[in-house]
Amino acid sequence: MNNPIARQLSAGLVLMMAAMLSLPTAAVATVPEPSFTPSASPAATAAPSVSPEPAPEPEPNVALSATATTTPEPSSPLPGPALEALEPVSAQEINGFFTLLNEYRQSQGAPAVTLDPTVSAAAQQWALAQLDFPSATPVPEDALPAGAAYGRIAETTYSPTGPTVQQLHAKLVSTYGSANAVTMRDPKYGQVGIAALRTGLNLYVYEVLVEKSATAYPTDYVNYSWSPAIYSVSYAPSGMIWKKLSYADWEAAGFPRPRLAGWIAGTRVFTFAPAPEIYATSPDGVTHLLTFREWQEMGFRQPERTAGSFVRYPWSSSIYSVEFASPAWLWKRLSYADWLQLGQPAARIAGFIQGTSYNQHQYSSEVFARGEDGVLHKLTFDEWSAAGRPAPSRLVSGYFKTSWMGTVYYNANVKVEGSRPVNYAEWSAAQLPTPVVDEYVPFSFYWKPVNSGNIYYRAPDGRDILMSYQQWQQAGAPWPRPYTAAPPAGER
């Protein structure tokens, strides 16, 4: 092909075909289907108007360009893992949460609340619309009706057999001082909205307590003679509203002088069976041995019978009250004021008190007990047996002395240097642990000058002690290291 114009036309056609083959499928325009449009009023002899036949799409010829590329169609996304469905609980279960809430409030001296369906609906709508997997997060303020003050709580629980309303409510109030429990018994709330849902074996609850509008009720101020706390009690139509006053509350009320109360809501009355004494614990946590008259003023309330006692160790003056409750015993170290409040009870000797740790020093079989009050004691075999023969923890520290010298050395970590001599007062405070007796204290050695018959002991604290022949014999006649001069400081 010698004609230059023909050569240019051929090259242009090849480039055009290569460009068409390199376009993605979506970029190639398709010719629309032919349309058939009859005339609105066709004449008898008129033929219908037909669009011309579409041009057929050219078949791509891959052989025309070895460099032509095609764009693969995007793959369909894989389906995500299926989450367990969120299911609202039944109306019966919502009523169960509502009933348990009011029972708890009334047991703590707070008035019952009423159910607010508007707040409940808003809370339920938010709970079901959570973008992430549901969590025990309180309903946000902006998801609730405006114009009210709220106390918002949330909790969840899991059970392999399916959690119940009772289980979740028990978790809400299990810790008396928790934010959930404090909010649930706060007397300033008058209504509640409740939402709850399930997902798999998890149960979630969202309770929104609504603060009631301020209403002035007749109010009295009371306290117990044996407790410093002051309480207000307001006589509302729905019942008495109790509140433990802070100093700011008392100041805002004008520092009213409280009258002595026979009974304050939330007080626990109990006995330590089989002992006949009756005790009361006020809502602020003070426990007191009731006199007959005080019990009478409480209306002879039936005490809760519980097993318990007052105990102490024979080597410590600390007295503890212990209540044999389930699932865990309840222990408390009594202050002197507590002991007086409880009527100065006599304590029996205990083999074990909660909070005690048991330890052994390195290379020693002696067991030491450190009580919850910090008092340290070296146990006898009988005392260790009375404690249930607990397995002691092995400390890294140890006490040592040589067979020929009376000095006792203490090493806080026998794996590293640091042994130091201790005086009798320090050794006695450590409960006179029996030192390990050997010819050497860790990180010490014997040495002698090569031109002298003297033998020295390089103690762990760096001192060089000149030994007598008798002391050397008592040490077991250890072979001394020969030195032309005194060993350098720090050598071990």
Helix-strand blueprint:
Elements: H1 4-22, E1 36-37, E2 49-50, E3 87-88, H2 91-107, E4 114-115, H3 117-128, E5 150-158, H4 165-172, H5 179-184, E6 189-199, E7 202-211, E8 219-223, E9 231-236, E10 239-244, H6 247-252, E11 259-260, E12 268-273, E13 278-281, E14 287-289, H7 292-297, E15 304-312, E16 320-323, E17 330-333, H8 336-341, E18 348-349, E19 357-360, E20 368-370, E21 376-378, H9 381-386, E22 393-394, E23 398-402, E24 408-411, E25 420-422, H10 424-429, E26 436-438, E27 445-449, E28 456-458, E29 464-466, H11 469-474, E30 481-483
Question: What does this protein look like?
Answer:
The protein has 492 residues and is an alpha+beta fold. The protein has eleven helices and 30 strands. A hairpin with a 4-residue loop joins strand 12 and strand 13 (278-281). The termini are far apart.
